[in-house]
Structures are given as C-alpha cells and as structure tokens.
Specification:
By secondary structure, this protein is of the alpha/beta class.
C-alpha cells in the first residue's frame, strides 16, 4: 500500500491491545500503524495521510483526550475514535464534543470496531474530496474581477439582471456581459451552479446585504 491509501492509526499504551487491534483491522484489508504513546504518534503523524485514528483514553504522559484536543487543532485531521472503559464514558462524550466522531466501550466488540473504523475511513475520504473540491472552486472564484464578484453575489441573492443593473446604475447589457464572463470563469452552466459554488466557497457568508460599493464598470 502507498501513503495515499487509508491507514488506521492505533494509539494505545498496551502492547497486547495494539497487536490484537492490528490483526483485526488488517483482516479487512486496511493498513494499520500502531503507537505506544500519544507523543510517539505525534512525532510520526502526517495529517495529510488519509484514514482514521483510534485512541485509548487513559495513557501515561499525554492522555488520549489531550491528544484528541491537539488533533482537533489541525486544519486537516483524520476522524478520531475513542476507546474507553465504562467509567470513562463522560470523558469520551467530552471528546466527541471536541471533535471525535465516535467512542467504543471496553470490552471491544470486533464487529462494532470494524464497522466504526470503516465508516470513519469513508467519512475521511468524503471530507478530503470535499476539501479538494472546495479548493478548486475557490480558485475559480479568485479569477473573478471585483465587479464580477459583486454581480455574482447579486445573482446568488436571486436578483434578475434588470434589477442588478438598476441597483449598480449600469445598463442591462453590461450586466449580461459580466454575467456571461463570470459564468465562464466559474465553469457554471446555470444559476443553480453559481449558487452551489457560492455556498461551498462561502463567498456570500458575510454579505447580508449586497449593494453598490462604488466599483467602476
């Protein structure tokens, strides 16, 4: 397998647990890497590698929750599954509030673990595909001129060209020309495509009201 293939990273201070989890997860064809401590994992981890991370709550030194908090600060981080004892459930719930996607109570059910790991791997794959798609669309938006970006926001607000022309004090013909160019740059076939791009790139997130900002034609 290459580093582009999904990997399940197991962080647990108990060697027997690490070994048994490795055998179990490798049995369904997933690559596995194990670490005896949170620090050992951090020293080796590359957040650009796809997969998921399985972390035991109680470990000497940096705890599983401390590690999970550190990972939550990463811009791109694989999904985290917390392994917990019965008395650690409140801690696991807190970890989920901090971004972990699931927790599994000991004793661990083989099938439950495999189901959650495989779901986490799929979630990570979808998340990374969405991030790549969003980055591509953001680059398209960056190609727009200030005027085209302004008109795009009006289009997303549902305004027809004649209304946009009146508000910006431009001719409808000029607005149509700008619309045609922005559609071409965005590789959009219809207004619905423009709206989807705006939502994914959040270009209108802070624009509760779009108006004339004094731009020239």
């Amino acid at each position: 397998m290459s580093i582009a293939d999904p990997t399940v990273f197991i962080v647990d201070d108990d060697e027997a647990t690490r070994t048994s989890l490795r055998w179990l997860i490798e049995s369904v064809g997933l690559a596995v890497e194990t670490f005896p401590s949170a620090q050992a994992f951090l020293d080796a981890y590359d957040c650009n590698r796809p997969g998921c991370i399985v972390i035991d709550v109680r470990m000497p030194g940096m705890s599983g929750l401390d590690l999970q908090r550190r990972l939550a600060e990463e811009a791109v981080c694989s999904p985290v599954i917390i392994i917990t004892g019965f008395g650690d459930v409140p801690l696991a719930v807190r970890a989920m509030k901090n971004g972990a996607i699931d927790f599994i109570e000991k004793p661990i059910s083989d099938q439950a673990l495999l189901d959650r790991v495989q779901e986490a791997v799929r979630t990570d794959q979808q998340r990374r595909e969405d991030q790549t798609r969003r980055a591509e669309l953001t680059e398209r938006v960056k190609r727009l001129t200030p005027r085209e970006l302004e008109i795009m926001k009006h289009v997303v607000a549902g305004k027809p060209s004649r209304v946009i022309a009146a508000e910006l004090q431009l001719s409808p013909k000029t607005i149509e020309a700008h619309r045609a160019r922005l559609m071409d740059k965005l590789q959009a076939n219809c207004v619905a495509d423009v709206v989807r791009i705006a939502l994914l790139t959040r270009v209108c997130e802070h624009d509760e009201k779009v108006g004339n900002h004094g731009l020239t034609q």
